[in-house]
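Researcher: Can you fold this with adenosine-5'-triphosphate in place?
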Amino acid sequence: MSTLKLDVVSAERVVYSDDVDIVIAPGIEGQLGILPHHTPLMTTLQVGELLVRKGAQEFSLVITGGFLEVRPDRVIVLADAAERAEEIDITRAEDAKRRAEEQLKRRTPEVDVAQAEAALRRSLARLKVGEKRRRRRGS
Ligand code: ATP
């Protein structure tokens, strides 16, 4: 069976690079499933989970937005920030969530609501991916 080469790159580092069977990405208009021989495309990603299947294994990453390019047998994700599920610091994400929620509750003039909402979305995505992994390992 043919595979896809997936590269997930942030400004800081190569977050993930491997040959995989399927990529399911958080496209701006919903989930985007990419199999080998997918039509070439470029699209914007939103905050969310990027799911990768390789044989019987499944990997999750969190992406905080960016771009995705599909080339013949290759997928490149340029992420604003990205972490593999095992790299997510859940306590840090919980703190970020609490800070964002407090800001949104206070709504004083110095609070940038759009920024706080974006921080909340990032923290929730990290918690979703991080806690899913924790549950799987626990079971
Ligand atoms: P925080 O307020 O905790 O910094 P943030 O959403 O503002 O969260 P980002 O700007 O998205 O953070 O990311 C900055 C850097 O920190 C990136 O390298 C990102 O991968 C990393 N990062 C952010 N939150 C976490 C986390 N909970 N676990 C692991 N890495 C994280």
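Model: Folded with adenosine-5'-triphosphate in place. Residues 26 and 87 are 19 Å apart (CA to CA).
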